[in-house]
């Protein structure tokens, strides 16, 4: 065999390997980025005003909208006087458990004046989850929704709703929550019960100074609404119903379920 033929035979496997390498290059996941600024803000409820810890000055905090398969980057900058960590409640965290958020377990806290970026993938989940502070009792005000949409072109396994609403059920204390916890520990008792339950940070109309500040939804007769309901209360199991209406449960903790009716 001539030298030129040997050269051609040697280069063919290299070209073949290069072609296989090109064909097997994985498609990069779309990246969703968010900025969380931990800030103290004065908020009034039940005729009382007090400073609370918030994300971006919002109570509840911002909703994270992602799609199944996305990579998510969330940069947390702590401008409050408390150490901070954020837990992404219910996310499976495949291959990125270090981003789960429980302080002193998967990470050190984000100290005042410092930043930390959470980097995780959303894999095999679709539906509703939530995020919250995972240090002290700061999740009384530091929390928000996570909405995971199905992959492009994948429909819901139930009739398409006309509209969607996020409903975050929470609690409100007139006093500083950390002081409430300290007082309970000093007495050897559970912390004092909250002064009100809230929907999207607002108490019901029967509480003081609340009649004009209650959360409400405008709906249209005959339309179907998907309600993403999250129990963000610290201590209580809560039940939800709408008078005169039937509801169908279609998903629980980012897993579709066989529809059942109440």
Automatic annotation (TrEMBL):
It is found in: Secreted, Extracellular space, Apoplast. The keyword Mitochondrion does not apply. It catalyses: 4 hydroquinone + O2 = 4 benzosemiquinone + 2 H2O. One of its GO terms (cellular component) is apoplast. Residues 1-29 form the signal peptide. Its EC number is 1.10.3.2. InterPro entries: Cu-oxidase-like_N (IPR011707), Cu-oxidase_2nd (IPR001117), Cu-oxidase_fam (IPR045087), Cupredoxin (IPR008972), CuRO_1_LCC (IPR034288), CuRO_2_LCC (IPR034285). It comes from the Eukaryota. GO terms for molecular function: hydroquinone:oxygen oxidoreductase activity. The keyword Cell cycle does not apply. It is an enzyme of class 1 (oxidoreductase). Keywords: Apoplast, Copper, Lignin degradation, Oxidoreductase, Repeat, Secreted, Signal. Residues 38-152, 165-260 form the Plastocyanin-like domain. GO terms for biological process: lignin catabolic process. Belongs to the multicopper oxidase family. This is laccase. It comes from Forsythia ovata.
């Amino acid at each position: 065999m001539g030298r030129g033929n040997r050269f051609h035979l040697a280069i063919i496997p290299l070209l073949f390997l290069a072609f296989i390498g090109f064909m097997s290059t994985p498609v990069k996941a779309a990246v969703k980025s968010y900025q969380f600024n931990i800030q103290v803000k004065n908020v009034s409820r039940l005729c009382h005003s007090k400073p609370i810890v918030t994300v971006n000055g919002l109570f509840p905090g911002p909703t994270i909208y992602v799609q199944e398969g996305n990579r998510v980057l969330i940069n947390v900058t702590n401008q409050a006087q408390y150490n901070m960590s954020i837990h992404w409640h219910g996310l499976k965290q495949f291959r990125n458990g270090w981003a789960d958020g429980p302080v002193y377990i998967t990470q050190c806290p984000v100290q005042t004046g410092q930043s930390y970026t959470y980097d995780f993938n959303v894999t095999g989940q679709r539906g509703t989850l939530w995020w919250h502070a995972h240090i002290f009792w700061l999740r009384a005000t530091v929390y928000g929704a996570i909405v995971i949409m199905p992959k492009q072109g994948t429909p819901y396994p139930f009739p398409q709703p006309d509209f969607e609403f996020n409903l975050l059920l929470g609690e409100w204390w007139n006093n500083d929550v950390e002081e409430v916890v300290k007082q309970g520990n000093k007495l050897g008792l559970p912390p004092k019960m909250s002064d009100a339950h809230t929907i999207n940070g607002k108490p019901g109309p029967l509480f003081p100074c609340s009649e004009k500040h209650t959360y409400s939804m405008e709906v249209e007769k005959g339309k179907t609404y998907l309600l993403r309901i999250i129990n963000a209360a610290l201590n209580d199991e809560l039940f939800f119903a709408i008078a005169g209406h039937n509801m169908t449960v279609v998903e629980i903790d980012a897993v579709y379920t066989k529809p059942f009716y109440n």
